[in-house]
Amino acid sequence: MADASDIDAEAVADSQVLGVIVIARNGDRVEYYQDPKTYEGGITETTALGEVESHQLGAVLRSEYLSPTSPSYIDGMRSDLVDNSEIKVRVKNGGEGTVIFDSAIALLQGLYPPNPNNKIVLANETVVTAPLNGYQYVPVETVEPSNDRSLESWTDCPAFNKHVREFYASEEFKQKEKDAQPFFRSVKDFVFGRPTTLENALYDFMNSQLIHNKTYAYRLPPTLLETARGLADFHENGVFSDKQSGGIGNIAGRTMLHTVLRALERVAFNDDPLQFMLIETGYQPFISLFHELEIVKENPELQAIPNFASAFAIELRRGSPPDVRDFLRFRFKNGTGGSFKTIYVYGRHADIPLTEFIYKSKGGVISSNKQWAEVCGRSSFQGLDLGFTDKISDAATYHPYYSAVLAFLSFLALFAIRGVFVRLVKAVGQKVQNLRGKKVRLEGEEILNVDAASAQVLPDEKITRL
């Protein structure tokens, strides 16, 4: 008898792609320094190489998901001219500054290249083509950590800072640093006074110099960079992971999952046009997600920093009859080289049913700024504490259950208001009927022959009928 995994694999062999959520890392940039204790970032800038890398990733995504001849083509999604109702873009706008935003724009240029058909005909029959031979403009939502922690949850988080300190104090870290002493002695002449310790990972500086500084590239022994990369992978994997699912070390992935689940919810809803979601971010959520979803158990090589312009694609697929449930397929592309590789979550060797994925992942999801503050051990969050930016708008507008609840509550509110209004009108009407044309004494001083207008405004407690 076939097990459940075999049945699921058969069900999605010829599955239909309904939509995809792509988490993409930024392209190349100059050196980026992060405080090793707080992970507050310094200043960095995009490079032309980084823009090219992201543009290439966009072109790959176009060939994978927007080409009707591709086996992963998103069914029914427009590929010639962008339909802004079908695509949503969220970009982290915290650490690394404009680099991630620039990478997102370059990626979108590859995903939807200029098209001369991007034009309009005016009333006077003048034909106007968009600039740059039909450049296509895709709206981008920047996510600011000052009011939305969903894409940068590891900074200003006391519990995460404690996790980092504990990792540095662990026997594993101390032993790795001890073993790396020969490297630290050899690398002193190539880091120009920077601290040669494991806590202060040197790879980012060395790699940036190797790419952009010809003199440095000619002098640097290749083995030093390889060792630096290995130490940096150990360092960042230890910081952005946790031994427990739902642990504080996975916070970068746990907040990212909120955005992913919301997007899947929209794509799965037939009346919602969304089919492609791009989340442009740094390297941190990749490591955390790979741990939180238990991907690293069978792919230990992913316990490392993903290369520039990497992409993690989550495809929502509808199974073939008789099993027409929605399934998820996970694919990863590490940088500009190679192609997408299918990877599996939670130890399954097949695409996972959407309902099963939601059930297994929801325990670790952080879905609001308030919950983030609680997990981080903060008494409050200085900002809009109404949940992550995409939570309220997406849930209220697109989720059928939330919409039904809101409609029902609106009906109750209107019904209650109507009842109050009717009772008020009846009371005023009765008052007018009782007083109109009658003589009354107002506070013992004045006698009035009350008309209809006066009857409505005379205070009851101050009048005496005669």
Automatic annotation (TrEMBL):
Classification via InterPro entries: His_Pase_clade-2 (IPR000560), His_PPase_superfam (IPR029033), Histidine_acid_phosphatase (IPR050645)
Transmembrane segments: 401-421
Key words, A-Z: Membrane, Transmembrane, Transmembrane helix
GO MF assignments: phosphatase activity
Record flagged with keyword GTP-binding: no
PANTHER family from the UniProt entry: ACID PHOSPHATASE-RELATED, PHOSPHOGLYCERATE MUTASE-LIKE PROTEIN
Family note: Belongs to the histidine acid phosphatase family.
Protein's name in the database: Histidine phosphatase superfamily
Organism from which the protein derives: Lentinula raphanica
Organismal lineage: Eukaryota, Fungi, Dikarya, Basidiomycota, Agaricomycotina
